[in-house]
Amino acid sequence: MGKKKSKKMRSHVQIGEAAALEMPLASPVKAKTPASALVVPAPPLSRLYAYAIDWAVGGVVSGFPAVLLYAAVTRRNDMFSNLYIFEALGYPWAVGVVAGTLCILAAILYFVVVPLRVWPGQTLGKRIAHIKVLREDGTAAGPLCLVIRQVLVGFLLEGSGFVVARYIREMAVLATRVDVNYYWEIAGMVITLISGILALVLPSRRALHDYLARTRVVPAEGHPLYRG
Fold this sequence. Notes:
The chain has helices spanning 2-22, 44-74, 85-88, 93-118, 124-129, 143-157, 164-176, 181-201, 208-213, and strands at residues 131-135, 215-219. It is mainly α. The chain has one domain (57-219). One of its GO terms (cellular component) is plasma membrane.
């Protein structure tokens, strides 16, 4: 009896070993790489090219309402200089604030509404340079991202990079009667310099406004580095 049981046990073991040899080996599980990690950042020269266009065009768009209001209110043919000119000519200081508010709305139209509704993630400058703004995870930048990136950080903190920032500082002086323009402008220059250095030295090429808004700038269709 003992020998029969031993033979049966050996046969079961042999069958089990044979079955194990015939089973295919499980392939190792590979960690998925996030799609956002595969996106190549836009090169600094492309961003600089887009910035130069946006600085010029965005500056004209931003200042246009103040120029129109100045011509309509004063009936003068000379060049509009700043928001202080209204009070200097005898008009209420509030007229300068109204002009500045219209300039801010025009800037928001160019820097927020256009990349939100017209060309997703692109101002005119970015459109020409074939780059665009995306969220950190690679999805389209929404209104909150663009407002944080362009208005809160761009206009208010990195003010030296936008013409409309000058009107914001002048409005603050008119409303508070405290000359904060000089110190605010210097602080904006320093912050802009830091932001530019980050975009140059970091592998992600993300500036300060990109980190605070959780965005990134990537090549768009038509750019040599565009991946589709």
